[in-house]
Amino acid sequence: MNEFDPNSAADPDSGIFGLPYSYGDAKLVYLPVPWEATTSYGGGTSKGPAAILEASYQVDLFDLEVQKPYEAGLHMLPESKKIRTWNKTAKAAAQKVIKAGGRIGKNKILQKALAQVNELSAQVNEEVRRESLRVMKAGKILGLVGGDHASPFGAIQAMAEIEKDFGLLHLDAHSDTRDAYEGFEWSHASILRNVIDRIPEVKKLVQVGIRDFCEEEWDYIRNSKGRVETFFDLDCQKKKAAGVHWQTQAAEIVSRLPQKVWITFDVDGLDPRFCPHTGTPVPGGLDYAEAIILIGEVARSGRKIVGFDLNEVSPGKSGDWDANVGARLLYKLSAWTLASQKLCDLVKK
Ligand SMILES: [Mn+2]
């Protein structure tokens, strides 16, 4: 620790962001989940955690808003070999179902493939729940790094064992409130539906950036009696065009959240120029700075960010841009989470 210099280039043998912290020293622990079984379009998000780790060495540690978030100790756990193996098996089985458009009918092979994907998905959820709970019970903050958006279900379940009343701030292009998309009970496109239907401790879901959804989801949101509140991207853009600043909108969005907040960040909530290789890119979306302002607003409002996940970062084949954005988002999520828990300085402006 004595030799660690936050101003110099990262030591290649160091941990995430070039930091020297072990699991025991760290207040915030990242759980990488290389899982993308039900990815329906572009693949590669299972390589997200490794790519973000690699890109993290380029991130400068001093933060304009939060100053020295790294001093609380940040550490990334190793990837689970089990999940990696399950991902391979489940992905191969899922491809058969996806090719048939989810219409399996009485086809025995497809029925078996679907059952296998659902079973392995449940296993991943349980593994993630157990591992997340271990971290949380040690008094540490959990930041999950996916994987596709199905990855964090177990972590949110674990959070619900600790916190009995919290809300979700959800940044995404998609509502992810479909019922078992393509027949997959644990599809990335059903993650928030599963959270709302199965985790009663999540009292409120506030969605931002949403611009791709189906009628079933529209109805689900409207019938949720206010438990799901969606700030559609087009509505936000129209307000901006009419002169309502993003800062004003961010404050309004955050005002709908309870005191304790989990942030679930699907990187495709951003404009695709920040994540061109993500699984399901959609035109429109938030600017990088708008996302940062929104996350910061949660902490500035006096709310507590209890944990978070960042998912759907896919490095693609051509360079490391997506991972670079992902690593920076991860650092800002961490910084604001620590600041909201008064675990590092916060420059008040
Ligand atoms: Mn999503």
Structure write-up:
By secondary structure, the protein is of the alpha/beta class. 39% of the residues lie in helices and 14% in strands. Strands 2-1-3-8-7-4-5-6 form an eight-stranded parallel beta sheet, with helices on both faces. β4, α5 and β5 form a beta-alpha-beta unit.
Short description:
This protein has ten helices and eight strands. It is of the alpha/beta class.
- Overall geometric form: globular
Q: Which CATH architecture would you pick? A: 3-Layer(aba) Sandwich
Number of helices, counting only DSSP H or I runs of 4 residues or more: 10
Instruction: Work out the number of β strands.
Output: 8
By CATH, the superfamily comes out as: Ureohydrolase domain
- CATH topology name: Arginase, Chain A
Summed over residues and divided by their number, the pLDDT gives a mean of 94
Which CATH class? Answer: Alpha Beta
Number of domains: 1
Spatial arrangement of strands, main beta sheet: 2-1-3-8-7-4-5-6
Share of helical residues: 25-40%
Tell me which oligomeric state these chains represent: single chain
Tell me the structural class.
alpha/beta
Characterize the biggest β-sheet.
8 strands, parallel
List bound small molecules: manganese (II) ion
* Radius of gyration, taken over Cα atoms and rounded to an integer in Å: 19 Å
Order of helices and strands: EHEHHEHEHEHEHHEHEH
State the distance separating the first and last CA atoms.
32 Å
**Percentage of residues in strands:** 5-15%
Low-pLDDT segments: none
